[in-house]
């Protein structure tokens, strides 16, 4: 059975670097990117991530239907990094809106993780440790991201918290 590794932590905590290092042990690697370049800052972040992983990873870009993309990962791939679930949560909220439709997408991802096509490393931000957001939309996003993190961590074979670049094994 393939490993499902969940990585979480705050902004700039070292999650993506840890994921890339973790994936280096595998010969054939893929990267499933959920971000879209909706402004110059995001475009620069995407370019930086592409540069960091170089040509060592086959890249798939999918902002919403990550379960469908995982299902068609070539059988030659040993590991895929999904980066990141928090951006995916924002995409789902922005593009789909409905809690029921969003949770349907989450359930579809969980179904893939029960029997993944290869080893999977999922990166997500921990955003629930701060102050309560001041507006309803931000609170809804925080709650959706927290629910996704709980469900994916529960389905994982390993879970890690990154803090100040240091990995702490949770499970």
UniProtKB/TrEMBL annotation:
Keyword GTP-binding among record annotations: yes
Family matches, as CDD domains: CobU
Catalytic site positions: 49
Any single biological process term in GO: cobalamin biosynthetic process
Top-level enzyme category: transferase
Pathway the protein acts in: Cofactor biosynthesis; adenosylcobalamin biosynthesis; adenosylcobalamin from cob(II)yrinate a,c-diamide: step 5/7; Cofactor biosynthesis; adenosylcobalamin biosynthesis; adenosylcobalamin from cob(II)yrinate a,c-diamide: step 6/7
Binding positions (GTP): 9-16, 33-35, 50-53, 61, 83
GO molecular-function term, one example from the UniProt record: ATP binding
Enzyme Commission number(s) from the entry: 2.7.1.156, 2.7.7.62
Catalytic activity: adenosylcob(III)inamide + GTP = adenosylcob(III)inamide phosphate + GDP + H(+); adenosylcob(III)inamide + ATP = adenosylcob(III)inamide phosphate + ADP + H(+); adenosylcob(III)inamide phosphate + GTP + H(+) = adenosylcob(III)inamide-GDP + diphosphate
Entry function: Catalyzes ATP-dependent phosphorylation of adenosylcobinamide and addition of GMP to adenosylcobinamide phosphate.
Family: Belongs to the CobU/CobP family.
Record-linked PANTHER family: BIFUNCTIONAL ADENOSYLCOBALAMIN BIOSYNTHESIS PROTEIN COBU, PTHR34848
Annotated protein name in UniProt: Adenosylcobinamide kinase
